[in-house]
Amino acid sequence: MPDFNKPIPAYLTVKKNIVQLILLTAAFSLAFINIYEPFGVNVWFKITRWQLLIYSSLITLTGVLIVVISRIIMYYRCRNNRINYWSYFLWVLAEVFFMALFYSVYIKYFLHDQRSLPDLVKLTIQNTALLLLLPYSVLWLYFSWKEKSLS
After folding, report:
1. Does the structure show a pLDDT above 60 at 45?
2. Cα distance between residue 125 and residue 142, in whole Å
3. pLDDT digits (tens, 9 = 90+) for 82-93
């Protein structure tokens, strides 16, 4: 069993890798929202695919701003002292939660969804976890592979 109190690998907090993570996450989120339509956007409005692409791009960019802010804070915090696996895991869960909360509030109060806020939070946590954890996992594997191939 791995030691979760060990510091995370340095490649997870390198500025170049953080930028790649943010860009891939944004691209994946945009594709995911437009293909899978996870938040029921096709129910809210009768819009064309092009309109969906424009609206989802704006929403995705706003949601990814949470990841940008989070990763900037992580970058500066890790310059002084590295974080361990537990802290990193909790950090990622916090990103999922706050992005889901943002989407829930947006859906409830700006798009006037009739579902209860707790129901929306539950739904958006599931979808946001998919939006973030899939690209995070793929990039973690890629960064690890890249680090090992350089050694």
Report:
1. no
2. 25
3. 899 999 999 999
Contacts of 92 (CB under 8 A, 6+ apart): 132, 133, 136
Q: Domain extents for the chain?
A: 10-150
Mean pLDDT of 9-37: 90
For the ranges 53-67, 85-99, 114-128, the lowest mean pLDDT is seen at 53-67
C-alpha 111/C-alpha 117 separation (Å) is 13
